[in-house]
Amino acid sequence: MAEDLEQVERELNEAVSAVLNRHKLLTTRWVLVAEVLDEAGQRQCASFVSPDLRVWDSLGMLGFILEREREAVHAAERHEDG
Q1: Which of 27, 45, 48 lies closest to 35 in space, CA to CA?
Q2: Gap between the Cα atoms of 70 and 16, Å rounded
Q3: CA distance 29 to 12
């Protein structure tokens, strides 16, 4: 299974880079979190990162996104409350 995940990360890196490059964006680092079904049909959370991404870099990126999403939720709630 670990070998499969390494191949998945290689393919994801190529795919992420290709898509962003088509839109004139240079990929430096990326993190992908996905809910997946394993062979037994069980849901799991899988995470993939760009090559050579340090743990503290990925944690910083995830923290930034988490805060941005929290602010978006709070803004939506404030808008709904009028």
Answers
A1: 45
A2: 25
A3: 12
Tokens of 81: 């409350």
Residues in the chain: 82
Rounded to whole angstroms, the Cα distance separating 57 from 30 reads: 10
Long-range Cβ contact pairs of 35-42 (< 8 A, separation 24 or more): none
Q: Cβ distance 32 to 20 under 8 Å?
A: no
Alpha-carbon gap, residue 40 to 17, rounded angstroms: 31
Q: Which residues pair with 43 in a beta bridge?
A: 37
DSSP 36: E
User: What tens-digit pLDDT sequence spans the chain (82 residues)?
Assistant: 556 888 888 899 999 999 999 999 998 889 999 998 988 999 999 888 888 888 888 899 999 999 999 999 999 998 888 7
What is the pTM assigned to this prediction?
0.69
